[in-house]
Amino acid sequence: MSRANRMKAVFLPGNKRVEIRAVEVPTPSPGEVLVAVRASCICRSDLSLYYGNAVVGGDAAGACVTGHEPAGDVVAVGAGVNHTKVGDRVAVYLGVGCGVCEFCRQGNYFLCAKWTCIGFTADGGNAEFIVVPERNCLKIPDWMSYVAAAISTDAFGTLYSACKKLGISC
């Protein structure tokens, strides 16, 4: 494999270790996009991996690329991608569902029986690139920084969604 097909990625194998490994750049399958990561935030659950504790159903710390709060630029799209194009600025939602069950059709991917979570049970955004389903890409405006967009996917997004569902206005 050539160096052009490799990227740096962060793994947290536990025992307070951080490993930067060279791994293959992923290729988008049908319905997926390749995002060049420009920002990826760290939260408390990442520290659990750092100390060696599996999170959200993960088999073990260090099993996949970390980072569940990424944002960046779309650099490639797979077949069947209709709403996202190369050059789009996106934040990436962390919950990946099957896309076809009742919960996924409602946008509640975290209730899907086949749910995975980037950074914990699927490769995440603490790398140069990440591949995700198109439906997990949230377009961000030009005025928003990549860091603000990345943190909006989890910390802010969780709070906003709860307030909206409860009818609480801020």
Automatic annotation (TrEMBL):
Annotated protein name in UniProt: Alcohol dehydrogenase catalytic domain-containing protein
Query: Which residue range or ranges hold the Alcohol dehydrogenase-like N-terminal domain?
Result: 30-142
**Gene Ontology terms, MF aspect:** oxidoreductase activity; zinc ion binding
State a single Pfam family of this protein: ADH_N
Query: Could you say which residues form the signal peptide?
Result: none
Q: Which UniProt keywords apply?
A: Metal-binding, Oxidoreductase, Zinc
> Gene3D superfamilies, per this entry?
Medium-chain alcohol dehydrogenases, catalytic domain
